[in-house]
Amino acid sequence: MPTPDAPWSVAWSGETAFRLQPSRDFPGMTELDQQQAPGVGEPLFAAVHVTRQRRGMVDLLCHVCGRPTTRHDRNIFPVASGGLVTLQDGSQQYGCNVPPIHRACATRALNACPHLSRLAERPLRCSADEGRLIHRTDVTPGLEALAKTLPVGLEVIFSCYRLYGPEFTAQVIAAREDWDRKTLARRRGAA
Predict the structure, then answer these.
(1) CB 86 within 8 A of CB 117
(2) What is the extent of the structural domain holding 60?
(3) Which residues contact 177 (CB under 8 A, 6 or more apart)?
């Protein structure tokens, strides 16, 4: 069983086996599936479990506890998660590659995660826009050696993200700009 300080979506050292399987979320495609053994070995905080990441994104499961989020209790950390994606028309929309998080789990994460506590970022409640699910076939960092063993020419889904519309994108941009202002002010005050 995972430790209280390890997020549900983190990979563990006992989860090193992978296989290819037909994608259940992107018909006609092949996805990488990772062995499920949360709590076996040590948590690899720098590595996200590829299967749990996709399940979290597809089913809007909490990044920390793995339970479903609801429209009224679905949050992200806008600075630590995702980024702006440039579309063909030159416009930009927010793309998030980290599953959402419950508000209570966000508080827990802020207290347990050194990265989040250094950022001093507040969670942003998601809008009713659930975003459009997009698959990614680029190799997830840390899986480069595994990718070299996959069949040549086979397009494999490693992860996915949600691309949000203009309204939620504007909220994320505003939250990031507010964080930038506050961070700059803190740095100036510390100098």
Answers:
(1) no
(2) 10-190
(3) none
Backbone angles phi, psi at 77, to 5 degrees: -100, 100
DSSP element (H, E) containing 165: none
Question: Residues with Cβ < 8 Å from 112, sequence gap 6 or more?
Answer: 4, 5
SS (H, E, C) 56-97: HHHHCECCCCCCECECCECEECCCCCCEEEECCCCCEEEEEC
Could you report the average pLDDT of every consecutive run of 10 residues in the chain (191 residues)?
75 96 97 96 92 97 97 95 95 96 95 85 92 95 94 96 97 95 87 63
- Does residue 4 sit within a domain? no
Q: Which two tokens stand for residue 69?
A: 């989020």
- Give the whole-angstrom CA distance, residue 181 versus residue 174: 11
Domain count, the chain: 1
Please state, as a whole number, how many other Cβ atoms lie within 10 Å of the Cβ of residue 73. Answer: 17
Query: For residues 120-151, b (16+ Cβ closer than 10 Å) or e, as one string?
Result: ebebbebbeeebeeebeeebbeebeebeeebe
2 within some domain: no
With respect to residue 99, please indicate whether it lies within any of the assigned structural domains: yes
* CA–CA separation, 143 and 32 (whole Å): 11
